[in-house]
Known about the structure:
The strands form 2 sheets. This protein has a 6-stranded mixed beta sheet, with no helix packed on it. It has a 4-stranded antiparallel beta sheet with strand order 1-3-8-7. By secondary structure, it is mainly beta. The chain starts with a strand and ends with a strand. The chain has one helix at 26-29, and strands at 4-7, 10-13, 18-24, 34-39, 46-51, 58-60, 68-73, 78-83, 92-98, 110-115.
Amino acid sequence: xxxxxxxxGGLVQAGGSLRLACVASRDTLVSAPMGWFRQGPGKxxxxxxxxxWGGASTDYANSVKGRxxxxxxxxxxxVYLQMNSLKPEDTAIYYCNRNPPDDILWGQGTQVTVSS
Length: 116
C-alpha cells in the first residue's frame, strides 16, 4: 500500500524560508508526476506546485510563483518544496500527492505557520 509522509513545517516569520520534504513509497512515486497542495484555515485544499517524473517540467500556482521551488530525488523516493519569502497568507497545512492527486494517498501533512 502506498504512503506519503510530509515533514519540515514549522513557525517562521514573514520573509523567512522553509524546506518541506515528502518521502513516498516507491510504488507511489515511480513514473508519477508529483505535487504539493495546501489547505489554509477555513479554505479548501488548493494546488501549490507540481513536477514531472523526470523533473524537467514544473508548474506553480500564481500565488507562489517566483518564491517556491519544487524538486524531487527519485533515488531517495522524495519530493521537496523550497519556500522563500514566506507570507502570512502561506499559512496552511501542506500535503504532497501525485498530480493529479489520488484521494487514497493523502497523508497528515505538515503545518506551516507564517507570522507577520
